[in-house]
Amino acid sequence: MADKVTRAKENTFHKSVKSVDLPQVHGYDFEQGFDIGKFLAAYGSTGYQATHLAQAIAIIKEMREKRCTIYFGYTSNMVSSGLRDVFCYLVKHKMVDVIVTTAGGVEEDIIKCIAPFYLTSFEASGKDLRAKGLNRIGNVLVPNTHYIKFEEFLIPLLHKVADEEKATGVSITPSELIERLGREIGDDRSIYYWAAKHNIPVFCPALVDGSIGDMIYFFLYKRPEFTLDTARDVKKLNDITMEAKKTGLIILGSGIVKHHICNSNMMRNGADYAVYLNNAQEFDGSDAGARPDEAVSWGKILPKAKTVKVFGDATILFPLIVAGAFMER
Predict the structure, then answer these.
(1) How far is CA 221 from each of CA 160, 213, 224, 225, rounded to the nearest angstrom?
(2) Least buried of 68, 216, 219, 304, by fewest C-beta within 10 Å?
(3) Is residue 25 assigned to a domain?
(4) How many domains does one find in the chain?
(5) For residue 277, what are the β-bridge partners?
(6) Measured in whole angstroms, how far is the alpha carbon of residue 20 from the centre of its chain?
């Protein structure tokens, strides 16, 4: 038994190497008061996703220092939230160069210029909300009347576009329609108002996958000749990418937004920098959950690129990234 105890002790207290040449773990020292710069820097030595967050800030700062063409992607649920105001700040100050989003990421920005969204809870009953004409996005509520007001704004614009298409024989692209929406809304709270003002292209490869698509469906019964040219947008996006000297990707969420940006960068043999922020896992083989290294295998990110994936909720983490990477102090 004594021999077994000795072996157990040796196993338990197995000696480490004499020295470890790696950064030490420590968190923010609140005894020194609060300084946002030092606070964010301390994330780098905290460990876990805090360290990845600090790496994301450092990579984005380098993207900006190297004057990369910055691709900014986000999903519609983020525009439903207060992140819309954060995105608007970046676009207003020309801190990103190309935007890729989903249908809701376009229409909900415009709708918020017409009427506000409201907070509720994740537990709010779908049955009760349906009876009241209220739509739930997580713990955010959108009254159905907001979409009716949006339709009243959109349909006259679609008639103008259909008239122009008939006169010229040229179909509008989703990016051109988004630019028109931004100019027509004329509201400085809008992401797409500022994108149109600064000539920042906004691509939405699935523009009809939302209320815009519903409205176009009904519109086609009045104007069956109306079309959207998505192919010309693919050419426009890929041409921008191939002309770029260096590219940096900031992608919040996943799905078609993530893939569309990465696939475009395959045309130049890969991006120079990439920051992913999402909660998706890689184990089902989806591109949504894939880490940056998988994109390297496709030629969408360069082997020597600086990359990081941050796991977490963008509503919590992205404002911290903006504070660290985009705010001058």
Answers:
(1) 16, 13, 6, 9
(2) 304
(3) no
(4) 1
(5) 252, 310
(6) 38
pLDDT tens, position by position, 146-179: 999 999 999 999 999 999 999 999 999 999 999 9
Structure tokens given for 87: 């995105």
98-101, strands of its sheet edge to edge = 202-203, 98-101, 69-74, 247-252, 271-278, 301-311
In a domain, 222, yes or no: no
Assign residue 95 the CATH number of its domain.
3.40.910.10
Is 300 annotated in the active site? yes
**With 90 as the cut, is the pLDDT of residue 8 above it?**
no
Which pLDDT belongs to residue 211? 96
**293-317 confidence digits (pLDDT tens):** 999 999 999 999 999 999 999 999 9
197-215: per-residue pLDDT in tens? Answer: 999 999 999 999 999 999 9
Catalytic residue among 38, 127, 149, 300: 300
* AA letter at 60: I
Q: Specify if 8 maps to a domain.
A: no
Residues in the chain: 329
Structure-token pair, residue 65: 């220092």
Q: Give the span between the Cα atoms of 203 and 103, in whole angstroms.
A: 10
- CA–CA distance, 270 with 295 (Å, rounded to integer): 8
Cβ atoms within 10 A of the Cβ of 131, count?
9
Q: Does residue 148 belong to any structural domain of this protein?
A: no
CA distance 275 to 241: 17
329 pLDDT above the threshold of 60: no
Domain holding 62, by residue range, is 57-109+171-208+228-325
What would you measure as the largest C-alpha separation in the chain, in angstroms?
A: 96
User: Pairing mode, if any, of strands 134-137 and 140-143?
Assistant: antiparallel
